[in-house]
């Protein structure tokens, strides 16, 4: 397997020095021989090295540097004298492009090129300049480089000043973006296109399809009613909390927290002015049912709010024990089911309100939010767009694109079989060598002290793990979700990369 990464270890830097010697001393007579057969670049401590491995052997490299003067400046004068001003706003130089002779089959150069596009242009460089050997002019041209000044150097080591601009890389970068394999917990990378339609949300056909979708959703969730809105999960939670504010303007509520999204619910509730107390169990810790019951007995709570699937730490919080407590003490139970709905079968019939979305485990386009209701609310003081009774009264009070309805209806056809698919995918993760800490059928968390390097390397090779959120970065955690299409094939590929990567860390 050929794969690329940024060099970080002493072993990798030694392999770079050996390849540098082999290429620029023995093959291209640019430097004098020495007994160590190692060539340390004069800008070594300023370089960022992109290397390509064949399994666990370093077989290719390129060095990047953005401090002036560039080495090419010393050959032709300032490159700004030869390039358009807009190209020169933020330049970097690529040097020491080298591949071992036994691996000059095009695949290593392709890996180098794609890593350049994926990583360095994401840093905002307007162009990369390079002194390309005339022997590989065709290769550089295929990568998108263009000559911008006369050739320089000796007859034995002749070079072409070449540049790769952001503009010239746009098509290739977009192609690479489309080829990325994602493991995000949402949105979902669709395996088919969803085209907008001209069917009006006021038409009879639309109303019929909307009712069919709602019936399917309620059947899957075992809920009495569902209200769709155009928006995100955060919007759905705001709608739920706004309704609770109208129903319990002065009464006390309890929020259960053990992760990032529980904390977000708590903050949203405070913004609504709800009178809530928080029971925080700590990051990723399981809810203590006896402690919750004790709190209910001591407090005068009218409702409880919690996150069912706490994506931030892959924790599935208990539902049935909370339903039993709610029924026992006549408390309304409300749940954020955004990351659990359609990931595993459970019943919402005991929930006063529950929220979900289209773009998570359901496996379709993001953009629809759902509020499930045990009983239809009759009054609300919330703003019109967040006012649940208004949606009930008007049925479709605001524009609801038809393609959302069709996409969700199509996705629902995969159930209940999709539950089994997601469960088998999680078993695949459990049975692999990946040391995951916590999981439920939608997402698994993996902690490692060198996680930033792991995520970066995966990204350079076109595998996007979920690890950019601040709370994940602070804990050195990456997450892999099972909800994306072609998971089985993609997981096998990324695990091959990870296995080689672990040997080189």
Automatic annotation (TrEMBL):
It holds the Pfam family Aminotran_5. Coiled coil: none annotated. Keywords: Aminotransferase, Pyridoxal phosphate, Transferase. One of its GO terms (molecular function) is transaminase activity. Residues 4-167 form the N-acetyltransferase domain. Its cofactor is pyridoxal 5'-phosphate. It comes from the Bacteria. PANTHER family: 2-AMINOETHYLPHOSPHONATE--PYRUVATE TRANSAMINASE (PTHR42778:SF1). This is Aminotransferase class V-fold PLP-dependent enzyme.
């Amino acid at each position: 397997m050929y794969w690329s990464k940024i060099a970080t270890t002493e072993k990798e830097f030694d392999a770079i020095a050996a390849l540098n010697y082999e290429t620029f001393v023995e093959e291209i007579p640019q430097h004098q021989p020495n007994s160590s057969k190692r060539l340390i670049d004069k800008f070594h401590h300023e370089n960022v090295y992109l290397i390509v491995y064949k399994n666990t052997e370093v077989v290719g490299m390129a060095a990047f540097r953005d401090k002036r003067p560039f080495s090419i400046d010393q050959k032709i004068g300032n490159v700004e004298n030869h390039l358009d001003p807009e190209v020169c706003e933020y330049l970097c130089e690529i040097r020491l492009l080298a591949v071992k002779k036994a691996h000059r089959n095009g695949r290593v150069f392709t890996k180098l090129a794609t890593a350049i596009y994926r990583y360095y242009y994401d840093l905002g460089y307007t162009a990369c300049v390079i002194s390309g050997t005339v022997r590989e002019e065709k290769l550089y041209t295929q990568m998108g480089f263009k000559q911008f000044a006369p050739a320089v150097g000796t007859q034995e080591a002749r070079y072409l000043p070449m540049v790769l601009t952001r503009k010239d890389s746009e098509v290739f970068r977009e192609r690479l973006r489309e080829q990325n394999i994602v493991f995000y917990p949402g949105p979902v990378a669709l395996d088919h296109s969803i085209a907008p339609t001209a069917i009006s949300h006021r038409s009879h056909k639309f109303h019929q399809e909307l009712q069919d979708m709602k019936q399917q959703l309620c059947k899957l969730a075992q809920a009495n009613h569902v209200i769709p809105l155009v928006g995100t999960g955060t919007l759905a939670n705001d709608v739920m909390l706004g309704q609770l504010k109208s129903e319990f303007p002065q009464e006390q509520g309890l929020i259960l927290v053990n992760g990032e999204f529980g904390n977000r619910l708590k903050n949203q509730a405070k913004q609504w002015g709800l009178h809530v107390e928080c029971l925080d169990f700590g990051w990723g810790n399981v809810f203590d049912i006896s402690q919750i019951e004790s709190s209910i007995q001591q407090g005068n709570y009218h409702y409880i709010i919690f996150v069912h699937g706490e994506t931030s730490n892959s924790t599935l919080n208990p539902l049935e024990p909370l339903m039993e407590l709610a029924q026992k003490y006549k408390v309304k139970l409300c749940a954020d089911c955004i990351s659990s709905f359609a990931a595993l079968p459970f019943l919402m019939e005991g929930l006063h309100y529950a929220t979900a979305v289209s773009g998570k485990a359901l496996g379709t386009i993001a953009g629809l939010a759902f509020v499930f209701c045990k009983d239809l609310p009759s009054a609300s003081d919330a703003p019109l767009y967040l006012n649940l009774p208004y949606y009930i009264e008007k049925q479709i009070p605001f524009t609801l694109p038809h393609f959302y309805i069709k996409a969700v209806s199509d996705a629902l056809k995969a159930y209940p079989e999709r539950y089994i698919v997601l469960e088998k995918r999680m078993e695949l993760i459990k049975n692999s060598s990946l040391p995951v800490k916590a999981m439920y059928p939608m997402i698994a968390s993996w902690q490692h002290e060198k996680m930033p390097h792991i995520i970066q390397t995966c990204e350079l090779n076109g595998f996007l793990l979920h690890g950019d959120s601040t709370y994940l970065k602070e804990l050195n955690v990456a997450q892999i979700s099972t909800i994306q299409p072609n998971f089985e094939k993609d997981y096998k590929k990324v695990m091959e990369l990870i296995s080689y990567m672990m040997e080189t860390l």
